Amino acid sequence: MENALWGRLSVEVRREVDRLVSAGQNVQAIALVDEHAGLPTPHLHDCVDAVDQRFGIFAAQAGEFVTMPCVVVTRHAGSGSIRG
């Protein structure tokens, strides 16, 4: 997958993101990408795009045309967490 943000993640984190996406836990996958992308801190929409691309790859492998469910994610100032 060609995505600069994806390339910043370790192999272990990529595997966990894939596991989460496969299980339909997209918000958790987005949070994991955000948490492990390092500096500079990625824009939240870039994390969503990376997870959406992984979702699309899994759907294509399954021969399905689906889109990732709409996820509204906000970053709360000072909380260090992402909520969906």
Structural notes for this entry:
α2 (11-22) runs antiparallel to α3 (26-36) and α3 crosses α4 (44-61). The protein starts with a helix and ends with a strand. Strands 1-2 form a two-stranded antiparallel ribbon. β1 and β2 form a beta hairpin. It is globular. With 84 residues, it is mainly α. The protein has four helices and two strands, in the order ααααββ.
The number of helical elements comes to: 4
Q: What count of structural domains?
A: 1
Distance between the termini: 25 Å
How many beta-strand runs? 2
Low-confidence stretches: none
What brief labels describe this structure?
4 helices; two-stranded antiparallel ribbon; mainly alpha; 84 residues; 54% helix
Write a short abstract of this structure.
With 84 residues, this protein is mainly α. The protein is 54% helix and 5% strand.
List the helices and strands and how they pair.
Elements: H1 4-7, H2 11-22, H3 26-36, H4 44-61, E1 74-75, E2 82-83
Antiparallel strand pairs: 1-2
Helix pairs in contact: 2-3, 2-4, 3-4
